Fold:
Amino acid sequence: MEQTPQRQCPECGTPVAQKAETCLMCGAHLKEENKRRLQLPQGDLLLPLLLAAAVAALWLWKPWQGDEPLALVPAAATPVATARAIPEATTPPAATYVVAPSATPLHSPTPPPTVTLPPNQTRHTIESGETVSSIAKQYGTTVKKVLAANDLNSRSIISIGDELIIPLPVANTSTPTVTPTPSPTPFEYTVRVADTLSAIAKKYGTTVETLMAINNITDATSLRVGTKLVIAQPPDFSTTMAYEIHEVEKGDTLFSISAKYDVKVAEIKEASGLESNNLSVGQELKIPVGTATPTPTLTPTPTLTPTPGPPRPAPNLLAPPDGAAFEGAETVILLNWASVGILDEDEWYVVRLRRMNPRAEQPPLAWTQATSWRVPAELYAGGTAAQRFRWQVSIMRQTGVADDGTWLGEDQSPSSKTRTFSWR
Structure:
């Protein structure tokens, strides 16, 4: 059996075990001695460390991968085994700066065309404190037209600096000529549920008074569903009243607007077609301001003589034209004439309709304060031969009632010209 080598205590020379830390004879500490024995001399470790550092430096440098030398080495010190000779250092040439000519574009840039507005439009740049309403007033237009021209609505937001297209009002340079136009051809309308005379008159551009006179209605509230009404527009209805347009602003009410123009609320509602008192900003209202044109006449006014004459001029007949022909018992024949003005309470238009056969029974005079009168259906005689009529209109003042119930009166105007028509 191999024995473990022993060592001696450095103080007393007594043999001690290899791993002993204290001498049993003299009590000397043997641990430091062990450390000193385990340490290698400095010269033994230095060489391996230097070799490792050199290898690491070469690996990082990698001279075999470089294209150019990192430093210039004297020619005498260049090893014979160098694969490529190092070029001699030369003085670099002085740098010469040349100003390159400016680049010329192949195509000259063309600015985008400026959008040209039509002559009835302009542009406005919004400034501080301006609103669409104030801008519209500045250019004499309306909020609704400005919003429509810019594809905006009442909820759109505008900012300072934005541009708005402003539609300008176009002046009407034509001189209006008042030409009396006959009423459109009369037609029948069948009363429906919820119809009223006022609604029917407004729908077809006529008046309640005209409907009542033509259809012999005495009570406007007694309209029944299924009743057939003759619809005709008075010839002077569209030229008797002038209107001023008012654009509703924030805070406006019908009462404030009526006070501003000194017009009744009911008149504003009727002229503007309103069914309630609700208004919206930008809404346009018609404000009646008076008569637009005098009542048109078709013939010159007779020359007055010193002798006092009738207080009213002769009515001018409008329709049907002279010599008109009608066929069938269901045909509606409506006689029209131009108004001579507002009649007094006891003044009436009197229609004289006479058959041209003197032996036939003649219809009585027709009294009306409207400017039209419907020929009664019972005057249709039927047969193959056409029956001819002549008619004329004058103004009379009603003075009493005869024994047979017919009215009596005195003339207030000359009779109109006579016209004829045939009915077969």
